[in-house]
């Protein structure tokens, strides 16, 4: 599937609860990520809709902010670049758009730039990310 143009500066992983602090080299995968075999990610424009569809019952969520170029270069959660080319971003069509999926790698302190909490207003669709 074709990547969006222009490519996003950041991708986000939505978490239903706070990640460990400080972040470890490898965060545990969600049940869905384990089942599907990749890490589900969203662009800043996709986060509100994804949160509304999959996390509507939560009043607060945590977002992991990840620089796109870091994952695209194959940087794993421990900060090491996988030279075997197995850690990669693939853009794949899902019913409501084209989403980034991270295959063959983990998220952790070596590739997550920031973790922060967001709170739901009347709806997650009202959430605005500045970047």
Morphology: globular
Largest sheet: 3 strands, antiparallel
SS content category: alpha+beta
Radius of gyration: 14 Å
Physical arrangement of strands within the biggest beta sheet:
1-3-6
Record field, number of beta strands: 6
Helix and strand succession?
Answer: EHEHEHEEE
**CATH topology, what is it called?**
ADP-ribosylation fold
Which percent bin holds the helix content? 10-25%
What does the average pLDDT come to?
A: 92
**End-to-end CA span:** 24 Å
Portion in strands = 25-35%
Number of separate helices: 3
Q: What count of domains describes the coordinates?
A: 1
The CATH class turns out to be Alpha Beta
Oligomer state of the chains in this structure = single chain
Unreliable spans? none
Protein name: DUF952-domain-containing protein
Organism: Paraphaeosphaeria sporulosa
InterPro entries: DUF952 (IPR009297)
Pfam families: DUF952
Describe the structure.
This is DUF952-domain-containing protein. This protein has a single domain (10-123), classed as ADP-ribosylation fold (Alpha-Beta Barrel). The chain contains three helices and six strands. It has helices spanning 31-36, 47-54, 68-72, and strands at 10-15, 39-40, 60-67, 88-94, 97-103, 114-119.
Features:
131 residues, alpha+beta, ADP-ribosylation fold, 3-stranded antiparallel beta sheet, DUF952-domain-containing protein, DUF952
Give me the secondary-structure topology.
Elements: E1 10-15, H1 31-36, E2 39-40, H2 47-54, E3 60-67, H3 68-72, E4 88-94, E5 97-103, E6 114-119
Antiparallel strand pairs: 1-3, 2-5, 3-6, 4-5
InterPro entries: DUF952 (IPR009297)
Protein name: DUF952-domain-containing protein
Pfam families: DUF952
């Amino acid at each position: 599937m074709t990547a969006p143009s222009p490519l996003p500066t950041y991708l986000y992983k939505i978490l239903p609860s706070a990640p460990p602090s400080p972040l470890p080299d490898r965060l545990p995968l969600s049940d869905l990520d384990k089942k599907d075999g990749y890490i589900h990610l969203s662009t800043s424009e996709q986060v509100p809709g994804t949160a509304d569809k999959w996390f509507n019952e939560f009043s607060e969520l945590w977002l992991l902010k990840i620089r796109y170029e870091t994952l695209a270069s194959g940087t794993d959660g421990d900060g090491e670049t996988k030279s075997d080319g197995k850690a990669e971003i693939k853009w794949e069509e899902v019913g409501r758009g084209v989403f980034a999926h991270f295959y063959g790698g983990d998220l952790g302190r070596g590739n997550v730039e920031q973790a922060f909490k967001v709170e739901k207003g009347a709806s997650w669709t009202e959430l605005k990310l500045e970047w």
